[in-house]
Amino acid sequence: MASLLRTMAARGRDPAASRRAGVAWHGVSALALAACAAGVIWFATGDHDLSRTVALGGAGALILVAALAMATFGELGDLSLQHARDLKAQAIYDALGRGETPPPYVVYLRPFSSTDQVETVAMSAVASGMQGSALGFVVSRYELEQQIERATRHFGPLVCLGQSLEHVGAGRIAVDEASWKDAVLKLCEKAALIVMLPSSRAGTLWEIEHVLASNLIDRTVFVDPPNAAIANKKRYDQSREWRTVREAFAAKGFTMPPDSRVGRLLFFGTARAPTLLARLDIDAEDNIARFFRSVIRIRKGERPA
Question: Fewer CB atoms < 10 Å away: N or C end of the chain?
Answer without folding.
Answer: N
